[in-house]
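Cross-check.
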Amino acid sequence: MVGSPDPSGCFRRSVRLFMKAVPNSCDVLVIGGGPAGSSAATHLAQAGFDVVLLERAVFPRNQVGESLIPHIWKFTDMTGVSEKIEQECFLAKAGSITVWNDKIHQILFSDFGYTRPGLHVERDIFDDILLKHAESCGAQVFNEVTVKKFDFSDSQWPKIFYTDKRGHSNHESTIRCQYVIDASGHSSFLANQFKVRQTISTQLNFLSLWGYFENARFVGVDRKSYSTEALTTVKPVTFVMSFEDGWVWHIVLRGKTSVGLIVPSERTRGMDRQQREVFFKQTCASLPHLNKLLEPARFIEGSLQFRPDYSYYSNKICGENYYCIGDAAAFVDPIFSHGVQNAFYNAAAATLAIKESLKNKKHRLRYSQLCESRMQQFYGFSRSLSLGEFGSNGINPGLVKNLMRLLPQLELELILVASETTNRSENFRRLAREAGVLGQFEENFSGRKTERIGALDF
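Predicted model, tokenized:
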């Protein structure tokens, strides 16, 4: 019988006969199928280029719950995936409430002219929508294929070595391409092999831990807490709170709630997985406000995950024939939910450079340099906003100030207000002042800050 297992391995060979083979070459190879990779593949496929995307996992794959800001819609509109996201009916969020050093701030997106909501999404579902959309647009997508190394000795046609693990095989092969887009996420495939990845600061050696709870209460737009049954009538907000030497997020999703802790790595050094889970639960139960939200909740066993090497950046993220985007290039503290927005922005910038380079190869180095400048500008902006003085490593202040001058007024005002919700704003506001954009907003800024501070009613 075809496909029957036997000791000779005929089962594995027969399975491979029914699988679409990874081609030997393509215009652009994308490594990774997260938001950055799938978005990049979509942009290029829609432009008519031959795109291959290699993803080591099987989608939908487990990923941390995510809070998305309304900025993402302009990018999903560009790739045509907005309608598919809307059809999934993710939870719409109205804004955020931050409790930092006992000061309570609330931000409502509607105050800044946004008519489309932020979202609380299950990233496994969200990412799967994006990846399937890329495939529907013509990108060739291959799951369970792991990239191992590269050879750029031929600058016109780099060679990528990979292992195809589909059908329980371990087939090794290569693919040539004109351009490589590294969207491999936290593994930073190219940046690590080029040895250009840097830790933000030795003083900022943090670990993120997150897990999921059932039946947790959520924070509504009116600063009150509700049971999940009220999600049909009350809009939630993302809840963020500082504590001692870290901070915590609380993101209500459909059927569960994502809770994450950001703590110094030394707090859990030497702990095994079980000990980290105990630490996570005890810390959540000890925090004011959060403990009330979790009082009726049940922790979903086995859901705890963690990520070390918390914040990093790369000295060089674009070259003549490669582009690093999303978390593969840098990872920024997610306190302002910039991660997916960064991924979409990088994908749009990198693919624009590649499309122009494929049309006019003699200028491709110049296009990559321009893209490097734009992406480093955006990463620098996010790091200076999220990390304060800690995030100054690797930042070009001139690029950040130029971006501040180019932002639409209401968008800049939203960011200035957001910067005041933590104790990390001094460096960012200094750059805004030097850019000449702070003074024109200070009167409105002060009024809006006072208007949205109030008590919590838990």
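Residues 82-110+205-307 form a domain with the D-Amino Acid Oxidase; Chain A, domain 2 fold (CATH 3.30.9.100). The two ends are 64 Å apart (CA to CA). Passed to J.P. for a second look.
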